[in-house]
Amino acid sequence: MMRILVLTQRLPYAPNRGDRLRVYHMLRHLRDHADVDLVSLVHDDEEAAHVDDVRGFVSTVTALRVSSLQSGINAAKALLTGRPLTHALLDAPGMTAALARICAEHPPDVVFAYGSGMARFALQPPLDRYPLVLDFVDVDSRKWRDMSGSAAVPKSWIYRREAATLGAFEARAANAAVTALVVNAREADNARELAPSASVEVLANGVELERLHPPIPPSARPRVVFCGVMNYEPNAAGMTWFVERVWPLVKAARADATLSIVGPDPSAAFRALCGADPSITIAGRVPDVRDWLWSSAVGIAPLHVARGLQNKALEAIAAGLPIVITEAVAGGLPPNAAHASRVADTPQRFADDVIDLLALSPEQRRAMAARSDLTQLAWRRTLEPLLPILKRAAARRVAPVGTDHAIPREPLPRSVA
User: What's the helix, strand, coil split of the chain in %, to 5?
Assistant: First the structure.
């Protein structure tokens, strides 16, 4: 069997957020076809508690804890250099030793780095002698560029700096990889703009259609729902905009409407913003978002910065809800999602669309969602190209450094070495 070393910046369990969901399904897809050694960063006790849950679909798991205090110190130091903050925030003691041990015990045929934050390890010893498949998912440097446009000083300066430093690294990493993967055509264009000579391929995200399919009749309650991790700045900014500028307009037309915000780690400031309004529920982290989706009338994704593909929108549709989204979100969705979506960017238009959908009967809302045929997005279909991509990369194995057959790589700048 082919042996794959997978590097992730978060433990891919539970699959309840975007930076876990895709790689979780990838690992489950590969488990019958390859031996997978997973090296994953973990960021808190809750995440670390799930290490044993991952062992069922990989050969070995190495979890390395990231210290939030040390990450903050690293980030402050990085501001004085050309090092991306993304890398400074993802330092974990013992990473080099762990990778050396794995390579000595069972060398990989191919390295799979999930995200540009982990790609730097693949371009350094001991991994730089193995072929690399890099999954950008989305091009992070473009997200930072987009966020800099609406942020105030000093964040705007920090975001522009990150866009430049991380973008330079992403271009280098894409050129070093045998294949660079992205989630949709929009991100492919971004990746090719950064690295015109890189081999870039689209590997679409999927949806758990059977798991999300509603087993109950559509809800009659006029509840609007958002599901997303609330310490992710585009989610927090989008929902702040919605609560401040859109929700009052909805409430003026539908006094019985309620809003549920489902997802971990809302900030104290956001809780305070919502706290005075009894029509708003902040659910926080929940065991299963499906119950919230199935008992709602309308989904929303009011993000004005949205890279890649917003799975939260597809999951709402698969759960039987029509959804109101921004242009930024719509630009990353497959065409079929349009049948269940209303697109708006101004407060009044967004509110009008939510109000119009609430005015439909439960059966009409369910039928609207059903018109978006997502069957081609089942994970088993979207991930079919993954194994051939990895096999082709493994066939390009780089000989050990120092032999006559070694393929030279462009040296990394000191700031990321």
Answer: 45, 15, 35
